[in-house]
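Fig. S4 source data, part A: sequence.
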Amino acid sequence: MNRRAPLAPDQLLAHADAALRSALLSAAHRPLPRPARAAAGAAYLDLWVCDRLLSAEGDSASAGAGFLVPRLLLEAVDGLTPWVDPGPGPRTRAIREYRRRAALLGDAMWHGDQTGRPAAVTTRLARLPRGEDRLSRPLTPVRPAALPAELRTLLADLELERQELIAECARTADESGAGDWARADRYALLTAAAACLDGWRRRTLRRGRLLADRTRLRGALSRLVVRLDRAPAGSDAEFSAAVFPQAVEYCRASGVVAGGGRRPDRRWVCEPVGG
């Protein structure tokens, strides 16, 4: 068991950021098959989700971020491994850096404080039925009719999950046990979805940029819906592959070299949707 102090979620985000850059750098001179492009797009989306969650929570030590960020980032980076790391044999500097960052994320996920993370989230659940939590309100105040068609179905699934979670928390207010972890997980994923939607509004943008914003939001929400078991994983892979060009541009835009010591300046290619 890792006895070192746990890394804060914003530190984990920096390691996942560097892992994605290293992964793309390792493949810079070879064409990537569609599954590899989908994995890179998925990692980019998960980084964006975690960045939005940290911004919304306002504190990298918050319960929701501490519970969800380590898992999402480890899953994101693990998805890159099959095509980045060839196993035994010579490794480039980029691959060695990828392995180092991935190992740090693995250590963080299985740190000794892991068992306390769900409990920190479950204390919030009692506030849901009383209307005292962010998730007591709809994920976005924007009317469904005003949403782009490609987002309506995803939002409908997420809203149904939110309402079901509130009803379940009301029924089990005086209980605890095996369902706590599952409810904490659902709560954290829905909080991340609300963070992605926070501030969404219709606005005038250049068409290409507006479509890129929507594609990224749709991909991010799709990954959250899949994690909530409300959709098959196939559509998520399609959305992830669609943002691969954004992932490449994102990694090029900041000019951070793999293994660099400074913290990346995360510029997400497009502005966060609505803000």
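Fig. S4 source data, part B ends here. Residues 34-57 form the longest helix (24 residues).
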